[in-house]
Amino acid sequence: MSKAVCARIWCRLPGNPAWTRLFMADKLLRFTPRVVFFTIDTSMIPTVMKFGGTSVEDAAAFGNVTAIVKVAAASRPVIVVSAIGGFTNSLLQSVSRACSGDARGATRSLDKDFERHLTIAKELLGKEAHAAFVSTIGDARGKIRQLHRIIAAHPVTSPPLQDEIVAYGELLSAQLLAMVLGESGLGARSVDARSCIKTDENYGSAAPRPETAAATNTVLMPLLQAAKIPVLGGFIGSTTRGVTTTLGRGGSDYSAAIIGAAIGARELQIWTDVSGVLTADPRVVPQARTIPVLSYQEAAELAYFGAKVLHPKTIQPAIDQNIPVRVCNSRAPKEAGTLIVSESGAAPQTVKAIAHKNGITTVQVTSARMLGAYGFLRRLFEVFDQHRTAVDVITTSEVSVSLSIDDTSSLEALRSDLRELGTVEVEDQRAIISVVGEGLRSTPGIAAQVFSVINDINVSMISVGASSVNLTFMVDQAQAAIAIARLHQAFFEARDAGVDDEMTQVRRGAPAVRDPEEVVA
Ligand code: ASP
Ligand code: MG
Fold it and tell me: Does 362 sit in the ligand 1 pocket, CB within 6 Å?
């Protein structure tokens, strides 16, 4: 053991009940053939901080990021950054333009975005760093011009060339941010994320390969040990042969989670422009507030409702390693944001959010042939499959099935194919409302409470139990806002008003105790 290095150490850290994989032990105290004693300086465990495009859209935003990183400097930050806001879109459009044969126009269309980088550099960098960045931009422009020419000469979209071009968004933001941080006295180093995230060859939405963890540690650990702050572009990777790839739109969160999992981070912070995940849509419920803690499953349920903050797939690598994920607001960094943890036990409150989605169409298929038959549902779903229409909520009775869809582009074709299976009824202008919370698993009386608050509103397609953290139902879109407002009032605002009624007790997890006579009455 004196020479061999213990490669994987699992331990429990203060404040986190989960086992965490460590990559750095501090001092070897003593060892026996079976047990190794060592000290760990927990302050050495890194935190991954990811800043999205809106958090780096201009010089002021870069200033906010710098202030945030400064405060966090002691927590060994590893920074992952998106392209500056809107640049990825511009780069993709430039590729289409080059594809249509207009190479010159394609390159020119990026001028304003290069200018934005230069303005930020001019405002925030000293003379020397500024000059270095001007030449970085010049090189990038030159390479992109060449690539546009190649594409225009062979006008089929070439996925590897597209990724090569689009990657400049993150390559440039990482270099610029490292320089800006350096300018304010932080020991930041820009790292080419392509040397860490190794992927398959699925250009445009590549998946990480297993060697990513080792590659990432090889690159980042020496920097962290030298107390440097690595700054990596999100979204990008490279194949084993070294060809640039991208992980799919919004892929910077994914990069951050992959890197966090690889280095055994203490926490993954996703810095964006909202203060975490809210209890309801603030346009419907102005009193909506940030949810302090969510389980991964709750967060995944909420993602469907356009809580556009996170796609559950993107944080999976962190969740798998029990790394807590925190969603923070780079414009209001003092707000705690929302913490997402893997274990449901850590998020016990009854109801966390009232989510909804308007513009839903329901399709009901009724057929006596369904009774006691098998294969009926398969044929039904095949129709949706053929017309590439995603189904969201499903409820069934013995002779009918109701399904909800939000994409109605193939509705007429669907309807005519479904008629071969039974009578079809379609209703549009519906809204899905979901009451989401781990407490739904175990607390009696919640469904009764939900429906009693909206007992004058017509409810259909009730679905509960499928995920056990979600009670979903459908209402008329015109009544959605009032239903949501009342549910929010009952489950969240009543508490603040100090109303300690039965509802408050249910919400706290206490069983609703009732006098049996009262129930009968
Ligand atoms: N810049 C990339 C995009 O806009 C990746 C990201 O921001 O997450 O999709
Ligand atoms: Mg994003």
Answer: no
What pLDDT shows up at residue 126? 97
User: 223-239 pLDDT, tens per residue?
Assistant: 999 999 999 999 999 99
Gap from CA of 52 to ligand 2 centroid (Å) = 6
Which letter, b or e, does each residue of 491-519 get, where b requires 16 or more Cβ atoms within 10 Å of its Cβ? bbebeeeeeeebbbbbbeeeeeeeeeeee
Name the amino acid, one letter, at 408: T
CA 246 – CA 268 distance, rounded (Å):
21
Give residue 495's pLDDT.
66
Task: Report the C-alpha gap between 304 and 300 in whole angstroms.
Answer: 7
Burial label, 229 (beta-carbon count in 10 A; 0-12, 13-18, 19+): buried
Return the closest-CA partner of residue 44 out of 293, 220, 250, 273. 220
**Dist. CA 66 → ligand 2 center (Å):** 19
Please report the DSSP string for 305-372 in residue order: TT-TT--HHHHHHHHHTT--EEEEETTSTTS--EEEES-GGG---S--EEEEEEEEEEEEEE-GGGTT
How much distance in Å is there from the Cα of 330 to the middle of ligand 2?
13
Ligand nearest the Cα of residue 168 is 1
Tokens of 413: 């074709």
pTM here is 0.83
**Ligand 1 site-directed mutation target among 235, 272, 273, most atoms within 8 Å of CB:** 235
Q: What pLDDT sits at residue 308?
A: 61
Cβ neighbours for 412, distance < 8 A, ≥ 6 positions apart? none
Q: Is the CB of 235 under 6 A from ligand 1?
A: yes
Return the pLDDT at 7. 47
Mean pLDDT, the chain cut into blocks of 10 residues (521 residues total)? 47 57 65 75 87 96 97 95 98 96 97 98 97 98 97 87 98 98 97 98 97 96 95 98 96 96 95 90 93 90 74 89 93 91 67 94 92 88 95 91 94 96 96 91 85 95 83 96 96 70 44 34 28
Nearest to 50 by CA among 163, 174, 179: 174
Closest CA to 469 of 312, 358, 349, 356: 349
CA of 310 to the centre of ligand 1 (A): 12
In this structure, the number of other CB atoms found within 10 A of the CB of residue 112 comes to 11
Nearest residue to 169 (alpha-carbon basis) of 140, 149, 145, 143: 140
Q: What is the pLDDT of residues 162-215, one digit of tens each?
A: 999 999 999 999 999 999 999 999 999 999 999 999 999 999 999 999 999 999
Our answer on whether the CB atom of 85 is closer than 6 Å to any ligand 1 atom is no
Which DSSP letter does residue 245 get? E
